[in-house]
Amino acid sequence: MEDFISSLTVRLSPASKVLHDKTTSEFKSSLARWSDIDVRVPYAVVQPAGEQDIVSTVREAVKAGIPFVPAAGGHSPWSTIGQDGIIIDLSSYKGISLHPETNEATVKGGTLMKEMEVAFHPHKRFAGTCGNGNTVGVIPYYLGGGISIYTPLIGFGSGNLIAAKLVNAKGELVDVSDTENSELLWAIRGAGQFFGLVTEITIKTYPYSLLGNEAGQRICGTYIFLPHQIDEVCAAVEKVIQNDQYASAGHFMVMQAPPELKQQVLFVAPQVFCSSDEAAKLFQPLIDVGPLQQATMPSTFDKHTGQLDWVCAKGDFKRFTQNGLPDWNRDNIKKLAQLYLELVENCPDAVRSAYNVEWHSPRKSQGGSETAFGHGSVDYWLNVLSWYTDAKNHDYVDAMDKKAQATTRAGTNEADFVSYTNTSRDDPLEYRYKGTKRIAKLKALKAKHDPTGVFTEQLL
Ligand SMILES: Cc1cc2nc3c(=O)[nH]c(=O)nc-3n(C[C@H](O)[C@H](O)[C@H](O)COP(=O)(O)OP(=O)(O)OC[C@H]3O[C@@H](n4cnc5c(N)ncnc54)[C@H](O)[C@@H]3O)c2cc1C
């Protein structure tokens, strides 16, 4: 390994870094991740400064048989590796260019969500971005699906990915588009992390006018209710979902209240693209239930991923999983709320967890099926955020996480289970990629492009 690091270091441009002295603060801080679950210490962290540096790192690692993982925002459990391998940390290779002639944008390496929003805002254009995910990496989000509040308007991230540059399992940089390596374009739209290291993507952008206003404005309501109000709250949320006049998305969360309320609450955050007056009318059913606290916040696109930016804090033990749901099922949601109460009662240090059902409306039920992702018809997602601090609670919180997933799947045929590819790799392939043809095609492409599993053993 030492020889590999020495020979790699001389190949990289001077602005690149190879961190391998574990006692330095630079090495230690490069390992800070969204979650400390199963965090490992690699032999080295390579921070390439340019595209050619990335290519050289992959090529040399492949040649020497050194395992590696790419890392962008570090929110997943898969961008960490132990002593036998290296992390290719893309945080020093970033950039966004908007091409006015096509209104497409190129996003490089380790660019984060917030950075993309801020870059697009002056041009009055938007694209799919993560909810509450300021520091999530743009490229992984697009490669593995990309669920956003804009989904009712523009579909999922993967369907908006139109080209890429990718370092393949031989360490070659290849162009991927409709006309070059088009089978890889299909594959990276939903399973991208298993086919290569993507140095840049080209994505569609849309004018703010599609949001119904020139300011790029979204109105986000926040309403806090007590658990015993759950039936009325569900009924009010259903009215918001059923409106088909304005595109809306939102979260129905069971979580711990702000400190002054000292208990669990139902937190409803509908988000809609219309004027404040129109939003007020739309949200009226929620106000009629009598929330303990309420607010409506207009914000422009450059701030949309920051609604709950504390969720992006690094450290502690956290896990985030998303499962597609066939419908809004009030009975299952009520059981989910009960489970949350059980979690916090038995495990007080998990109070920052949240069990959350996300909706997208009006129902689209279309789009995205031609990509590897293929979940274009899913309009409801269970989002389980587990967040705790005591390592002895790993098993208990994990079991509750699984119970929450099982609860919201009750009544659904197993053949229709949907696990989000960007947050689940342990669930059966049949949950993550729908249809035998899609799975067979993915496996055949993996066997052709990465037969030895340089980019994980997934699909082999
Ligand atoms: C707080 C929070 C909010 C979220 N909100 C949403 C949401 O609203 N919608 C949604 O769809 N998802 C959401 N997610 C899930 C998120 O999209 C995925 O976890 C995403 O993969 C994280 O990307 P990252 O860059 O932060 O993570 P990383 O761990 O750095 O990367 C994720 C995976 O991609 C690989 N990878 C990184 N860069 C590259 C590259 N250039 N080429 C190939 N592979 C690469 C890594 O090795 C790893 O396997 C959220 C996650 C969190 C924790």
Automatic annotation (TrEMBL):
Belongs to the oxygen-dependent FAD-linked oxidoreductase family. PROSITE patterns: FAD_PCMH. It comes from the Eukaryota. It holds the Pfam family FAD_binding_4. Keywords: FAD, Flavoprotein, Oxidoreductase. This is FAD binding domain-containing protein. InterPro entries: FAD-bd_PCMH, FAD-bd_PCMH-like_sf, FAD-bd_PCMH_sub2, FAD-linked_Oxidoreductase, Oxid_FAD_bind_N. Residues 38-208 form the FAD-binding PCMH-type domain.
